[in-house]
Amino acid sequence: MSEESSVERLTEAQAREELARLAGVLARANAAYHAEDAPIMSDAEFDALKARNAAIEARYPALKRADSPSDQIGSAPAEGFAKTPHSVRMLSLANAFDAEEIAEFDARIRRYLGLGHDAPLAYTSEPKIDGLSLSLRYEAGRLVQAATRGDGETGENVTANARTIADIPDHIAGAPDILEVRGEVYMSHEDFEALNARQAERADKPFANPRNAAAGSLRQLDALITAARPLHFFAYGWGEISAPLSDTQMGAIERLAALGFRTNPLTALCDGPGALIAHYHRIEQARATLGYDIDGVVYKVNDLALQARLGFRATTPRWAIAHKFPAELAWTRLEAIDIQVGRTGALSPVARLSPVTVGGVVVRNATLHNEDYIAGRDSRGGPIRDGKDIRVGDWVQVYRAGDVIPKIADVDLSKRPENSQPYGFATSCPECGSDAVREPGDSVRRCMGGLICPAQAVERLKHFVSRPAFDIEGLGAKQVEAFYRDGWIREPADIFTLRDRFGHGLQQLKNREGWGEKSAANLFDAIDEKRTIPFARLLFALGIRHVGEQASSLIARHYGTWEEFTAAMDAACDLQGPDWEQLLGIDGVGEVMATSLVQAMTEPHERASIDRLTARLSIAPAARPDTSGSPVAGKTLVFTGTLEKMTRAEAKARAEALGAKVAGSVSARTDLLIAGPGAGSKAKKAAEIGIEVIDEDAWLALIGAA
Questions:
Q1: What is the spatial distance between Cα 491 and Cα 474, in angstroms, rounded to a whole number?
Q2: Residue 56 has pLDDT above 50, yes or no
Q3: Which residues are annotated as catalytic?
Q4: pLDDT of residue 98
Q5: What's the rounded Cα separation, in Å, for the pair 92 and 320?
Q6: Letter string b/e over residues 299-338, b meaning 16 or more CB atoms within 10 A of that residue's CB
Q7: Could you tell me the domains of the chain?
Q8: pTM (2 d.p.)
C-alpha cells in the first residue's frame, strides 16, 4: 500500500494518533541529527516522514499539532558554542518523493501566482548535498561570522572552524557590503575513508558516514582539529544581503561562483516539471560517481521577483522543494506487540522487532497504528496487505520511507509459525485497567480513565514541558516520569509549587540520584523563569485535542489576551451564540477543533486545573506585527468571490502582515468584506447586517498596492 493511499484511508482518529506519534519520533530524530551528529535514520527517510506528516495535516488541517514537525527547523544550538541569531532565518525545505508531487508543486505555484498552465515558469535544479548547513557573513568583503543552522532562528558560532576550510574565502572582492552566503559543508568519500583509516590507527571510534564526520569535524571546540579534517563547502544561496546578486536564482549562483565560492556544476535551468524530472534522473544515475553524498535534488523558482511574491510558510519557502531519493525495505521477525497509552488516552500498538538494518539504521520498533491495521483491514473494512493479519512470531517486511518508527508493509505467510494465533486487541487500559472504548466511526480505542490514568497524566505533563510548550530547562520526560512516580507532580500547576513545597533547603531533591544542590537550585530557577509565558505557548502546552501549535498561535492572535479568550470560551459553552460564531470564524479553526477547545476550557475539573496553573503565571499577550499606519490593523476581514489581481492566498497573507484578522465567515464582528466576482451568500449576509463591502480594486487602493 502506498504512502498516499495509506494517508487517504486514515480516519480522523487514526490521523490524530499518527500525527502525535510522528511528532515524537521526528523530534528525537531532529535532535539526534542536528544537535548530536548521530542520526538515527537517513536524511531521505527523515524527509519522507515529514512528508507523511504534512500529507496528513493537509488532509486534516484541524488536527495540526502545536509541536508539528512541519513547524520545526533543525534543533537547538549545542552547548559549548556561542549562540548566534540569524538575521534572516535559515529555513528547511518541503519534500517530494515522486513525479506526481513535483507536478503538484508546479501547479500549486501557478495557482498561487495566478499563472496559466502554459505560462513559462523556469526552475533551477541542483543536487541536495548530505552535509551540514552553514551561513557565512561577509561585511565589506571580509568574513566576520560563520554559523550553523541550529533551530533556524539561532545557530552555533563556528567562525574559527570555518576559516580552516579551503573552499571558504576569508576575503572576497566585488561583493555587496553585507553578504550572507549559505551552503553545505561536506566530506568526500575518499577523504572519509582516509579519516576513518587514521581513526582506526589511533584506536579511535570510526565515523558512521561522511555526513556525521563533516558535522562532527565542523563542530569541534578546538579549531585545530577542524583544520586537520578534509572539509569542503558548496554555496547554494544567501541570507541577508545589502544589494541583489542578480534577478534570477541561476544568475545569483553564477555571481557567487564569480566571487570565488564553489557551486555545484550539476546545477541546471529547467523549464517545467518534465525537465525537472529528467534532470533528477540524470543526477540519480550519476549519484554513485559523484564522490560525495547526496540525498535528492532541489528545485527552486528561478525568477527572484516571483520568489518574493511566493514568500514563505512557517518553516519552508513556497518557491522551493527537495525531491528525495527513495528509501529501503527489510525483513525481520516480529517478537512482540506492546500497547502504549498516549496523553489523549489512545491505545497505540507498537511492534517489537528482531533488530534489522534498514537504510543504514538499526530498527527495533514499528508502528502498528490500530487494531484494524493489525487485522489487515482499512478504516472502511476493506483489505490491506491482501487481507493478511499481523501476529507475534510473523516474518514481516519493514518500510522506513515515511516513518522513523517504521511500519509493517507486508507479512510472509509461508514463514508463519504453525501455532500462531490472531492478536487479541486490549479492551481495557494496560496502565489503569479502565475500559478501552472504541467509539463509532473511530478506529482508535481510548482509555476512559481520564485524569485517573497515570499514562495519560504523565504524557500530558511531558507535553506541557516539551520544547514548543514551556520548555523548562532540566525538566524533561525522564524527570517528569520520576517526579510523577514519587507523587511530586500530578498536574502542571504542581510544577510551579515545587520550590515552596520542598523549601529552599532543596534537601529532598538534591539527595536524589543525579541531583545535587546546584542542579536542584538551577531547576527551581528555570521553573521560575517560565512563570511568564506567551499566550500561544500556554494554550499549546495544555495539550487540548485538535489544538496544535499553529492553531494556538491563530487563536492567541485573534483574542489577544488570556482574559479575553477565557471569557469568550465561557460565553460559548453552549456551542452557539456570537462568541461561538466568532471562534468558528477564525480562518483555520473548524467545528471539531472549536468544540474540543470550548469543552476543555469549560469542563469543571479541567478548568479548575487550568485556573490553578494560570494563577501562578504571568501570561503575555499575543505578539502583534508592527502595523503602525496600517489601515486594517485590528480589523476582521473576510474575502469572498474570485480575486483577479492577486490570489486568495496572497490577499490573506498581505492582510495578516498588515495586522488584520482574516475570518472564514461573516459575522457581526466582521469589519470589512472584500468581494470579487461570484460573491454569494457571504456578500448577501454582509449586506443584511450592515457590514461594509468593497471590491478588489478598492482593497488594493486601501492597502496601497493598487
A1: 18
A2: yes
A3: 128
A4: 86
A5: 10
A6: bbbbbbebbebbeeeebbbbbbbbbbbebbebbbebeebe
A7: 3-72+328-415 (2.40.50.140), 83-324 (3.30.470.30), 453-490+497-530 (1.10.150.20), 534-620 (1.10.150.20), 636-702 (3.40.50.10190)
A8: 0.49
